[in-house]
Amino acid sequence: MPQPVDLSVKTSTPPTRQNPGAACEECRRRKVRCDRQQPACGLCLSSGVQCQVTTPRPPRGPKRGYLKALQARIATLEGSLLQQQQQQQQQQQPSSNCSNTMSISPVDTSLEGLAFNDPSSLTWDFAVTADEDATLRDLCRGTGPSTTSGGSSLDEGSAQASTSPIRGFETLSDGIGFADATMPRKMSEMSDGLDGLNISNLMQADLDQLYFDRVHLFAPILHQRRYFSWARNIAKAGAQSCLRYAMWTLAASVSAHYQNIGDSLYRCTKQALEALDPKCVGITMTEIEKVQAWLLLAIHEFMCVDFSKGWESAGRAFTLIQLNWHHYTSGSDVSLTREDWVDAEQKRRTFWLAYCLDRFISIRNNSPVTFSEQNTIRLPAPEVDFQNEQPTVSRFLSEAITAMDAKCTSAFAECIVVATVVGRALNHGQQSVVDNMYIHESQGFWEQHEWINSTVVQRMDMFNQNCPTAAQEADPMLLFISMMWRTTVLYMYQLIKLVIHPSDEKRSVLADYTRQSTTAAKEIVNLTNKLSQLNSFKVHPFTPIPLSLCAEFFVTYHELGDTYGKQLQEITEAMHGLMSFSNLGPGFSSYAR
């Protein structure tokens, strides 16, 4: 008979493989099974190691730097497609109905063989989602999303309908277009365009970063946080939009990747600035962004367009500053709030940039200066204080030049000092020409000449003490300032040569100025050799000015020594290397003879 079953005996459940919870770090490191005992597992207890359990694990995802690398590849794709379209349209005759078609071939070897002619066969060497893969393939087929449903124009007009054979591109008046998207993103994220010019968020961020990395070093007039604050607003003032396009124009000129869109940005910027003028009726307060935009546009024109156009744009900015002069003069900074101090500092920096531009271009063109050094505008505060919104009371220009403890607070302040002394030398030379027209020799010429020359020597020595040679060679701004000090020495020597006659009793003083100028010329050549160690896009845009003046000195006074021929060749080679970055050395091609 079967035995009765004892119901009082409970059936035991099989034990689980391991206790619930996360494995400790030590067991993970050794790649062994953790028994998950608390407060210490068996392995840690036996080995005497502290048992640590990390409950929140980092999320799985792409490696660090992967997204940035992917964005860089997308930017390369955008630029390559744009360049390919531009080349195709240059080869074809323009059509009135814009109905021409073109085929797309591989345009960039860095994309590792993407076959645009057969998008279905494309393979990616980076991980993408299904939506991203479809978007990229549609773009290569020419069926990407159109920008016409997205942004609005900077001049409050709507974006023009795309007439390009490739959908997803907006065509400009000159037939150049910009890709609006290569990754899925909302159309509201697209940059507002001007005259159909639309720039993706990726290109915006890249141009902004290029500006602050390469342009802000020699034109530090913008407060970065405030700029990015109003730049994100959809509704921007017309002057702010013009300033942003001027920044992008200058950033594109110092970038190999965006140089192909620099001309289009320049034309849009200039048209927008000129369109703002009729809106200003009477003498009203001009927006500071408008003055800054004209200054940046003038620098771009000096570098990449034409000397006369740059001078005209600079004159626009100078006139706006003079019309609103009382807004730039310094009051009592002690009573200002932090926000008001930053606004006042931006105006000061804008004026001083115009002041330096005025003097450096004037000495290249030997023309009278616009702004006087006799003003009540304080020098710029240190860059760190400005960006951190820390109110600082800086010196006046006259105090900084005459101070014996002239510590270099910033490269921008030192640039203002050298520009001031350059202006004194320029005014001195022009006054001597006027005096010779009415009297044979002015009694005050020699006193003025000695006073300016002593200031040059003294301030140049202070600059060399505060900024050692190694610092000058590594900083493009300091390198330019060092060249300008020595260029002023050459200019003062040329004035002496023009005034002293063969029978003049003061001819004995010429030997001292000859030694000074010879030493200065050799030092400029040494500094010129350091340019090859710098990134060409980071060289100060006005560097051709001292180089061309030094080359003229070598050509004019070649009798001072046979070694000047070799030094002239080195200067000429350096200037030819800068020809693609700046047009501020007119006539220097004739020096290489």
Describe the structure.
- The chain contains 20 helices and two strands.
- Helix 5 (201-215) crosses helix 7 (238-253) and helix 19 (544-556) runs antiparallel to helix 20 (564-578).
- It has three domains: 77-82 and 107-184, no CATH class; 199-378, no CATH class; 402-593.
- With 593 residues, the protein is an all-alpha fold.
Brief summary:
The protein is mostly helical and 593 residues long.
Keywords:
two-stranded antiparallel ribbon; 2 strands; mainly alpha
Order of helices and strands: HHHHEEHHHHHHHHHHHHHHHH
Please report the total strand number as a whole number.
2
Overall morphology: elongated
| Number of helical regions | 20
Question: Strand pairing plus helix content: what structural class?
Answer: mainly alpha
Instruction: Provide mean pLDDT, rounded.
Output: 75
Low-confidence stretches: 94-117, 142-195, 586-593
